[in-house]
Design goal:
Radius of gyration: 22 Å
Main location: endoplasmic reticulum
Oligomer: single chain
GO molecular function: heme binding; iron ion binding; monooxygenase activity; oxidoreductase activity, acting on paired donors, with incorporation or reduction of molecular oxygen
Organism: Microctonus aethiopoides
Structural class: alpha+beta
CATH class of the largest domain: Mainly Alpha
Strand content: 5-15%
Cofactor: heme
Protein name: Cytochrome P450
Largest sheet: 5 strands, mixed
Length: 434
């Protein structure tokens, strides 16, 4: 345990997995509030997100998202994901055909188009046109929410850690134009479904059903837009950043890439060329590859909790610490993920760490890419699903190689205060192997 002060607020950094388990799971009720907070008047669409809420409000909003992302709902979302993968595949084929079978690409921009199109279809029920040259695609519009490093950090630090200053300066994490854009989409889609009598079996329709209020079962459109925005936060930037790091590691480790492609091709043969829900779930080696990449470069570099009730923490060495209400508790994800106490050769990319034989030997609370306990990421399964689908689509017909334009070594840099991103632009070369 390491003590510190965040301005005038006392804090404690914990590194012992058992203490982390205490904070995140066994004594969750004493640490159920995250330090990040938002002004509901400035951020009306984000203040229902489970990450920013606590108590009954957190419980209610999380239950809606969990219900809307149930196992049977994920199977339908997998069908929507196939549409995105077809667009992704067609786009790459167009690019390679215009470039003698290979082309250089900023992989973060490419993966942002993929995750944006997925969110557009799955959460908002629209064609995002993210792989087209149109000027106002879904991807082009929403990227302004995550400005370049520097500006993004100022906005993130102010909105999450200095909310009183954000309120005075009227600084928003979600820009007003994005707020209006999301609301406009939801209003149009819901009006269309009402006019046509369409009842879809998607995430949006389930959220609509869960957000009906009053005797007349009126739809609370603000609540619907808010939960769609939560889907966006869980499925867009973090997934595109993770995919960028994963593809970089595959380019840097061709043996791993070849082994993963073999698994992908075997599954395509098994499922008659169709990227089904079952196909995605069976890719065990891909699961290992993604998890190892998230170990080295987690998109959430730390978790920050607030103690709500005085509590005594006891370390593995017997050291006791009385934690007073209001104390911040910091859990460094990247610190845990690269700690040589827990991981052999922690800076080496090795997917075999997460094989069935090895992963059972690890303490559950030394690996936290999605958090853990009751406040773990609601969108974890859907994030893994879309990342696996993107990689399977890409590696089926193409190889990935490093491009000289990428400045190594690649590390992480915080973006928008909370989310980590590559510290340099990631340029990779995609080559056809058909």
């Amino acid at each position: 345990m390491i003590g510190f002060y965040n301005f005038h607020v006392p804090g404690l950094i914990i590194r012992d997995p058992e203490l982390i388990k205490t904070v995140m799971l066994t004594e969750f009720n004493n640490f159920d509030k995250n330090t990040s907070s938002l002004d509901p008047h400035l951020e009306p669409l984000l203040t229902t997100n489970p990450f920013f809420t606590s108590g009954l409000e957190w419980k209610t909003n999380r239950a809606i998202l969990v219900n809307a992302l149930s196992g049977c709902r994920l199977k339908h979302i997998a069908l929507q994901l196939q549409t995105v993968c077809d667009k992704f595949s067609n786009y790459i084929e167009e690019q390679t055909s215009m470039s003698d079978g290979n082309f250089s690409v900023n992989i973060k921009q490419l993966m942002s188009c993929f995750t944006a199109e997925f969110v557009a279809i799955a959460a908002f029920g629209i064609d995002g046109k993210s792989f087209t040259n149109e000027s106002e695609t879904f991807a082009q519009t929403v990227k302004s929410m995550f400005p370049p490093v520097g500006a993004g950090e100022i906005i993130g630090i102010t909105t999450f850690f200095l909310p009183f200053l954000a309120k005075i300066l009227r600084i928003r994490f979600m820009p007003k134009n994005i707020d209006n854009y999301f609301r406009q989409i939801i209003n149009c889609v819901l009006q269309h479904r009402e006019d046509t009598g369409e009842i879809a079996q998607d995430f949006l329709q389930k959220v609509v059903e869960l957000c009906k209020t009053g005797k007349d079962n009126e739809v609370n459109e603000n609540a619907v837009a808010s939960h769609a925005a939560s889907f966006f936060l869980d499925g867009y930037e973090t997934s595109s950043v993770t995919l960028s790091f994963v593809t970089y590691q595959l380019a840097a480790h061709p043996t791993v890439q070849a082994k993963l492609r073999e698994e992908i091709m075997n599954n395509f043969e098994k499922y008659n060329g169709k990227l089904t829900y079952e196909f995605i779930q069976e890719m065990k080696y891909m699961d290992q590859v993604i998890k190892e990449s998230m170990r080295l470069t987690p998109t959430i570099p730390y978790f920050a909790k607030i103690c709500t009730t005085e509590f005594k923490l006891v370390g593995y060495d017997g050291l006791e610490c009385i934690v007073h209400a209001g104390t911040e508790i910091i859990i460094s994800t990247i610190g845990l993920h690269r700690d040589p106490t827990f991981w052999e050769n922690p800076d080496v990319f090795d997917p075999e760490r997460f094989s069935d034989d090895k992963r059972r030997n690890y303490h559950k609370f030394i690996y936290l890419p999605f958090g853990s306990g009751p406040k773990s990421c609601v969108g974890m399964r859907i994030a893994m699903m879309q990342m696996k689908a993107a990689l399977a689509t890409l590696l089926k017909n193409y190889s990935i190689e490093l491009d000289p334009k990428t400045n190594e070594p690649i590390g992480i840099h915080r973006l928008s205060g909370l989310i980590a991103a590559p510290n340099n632009e990631l340029w990779l070369r995609i080559k056809s192997i058909k």
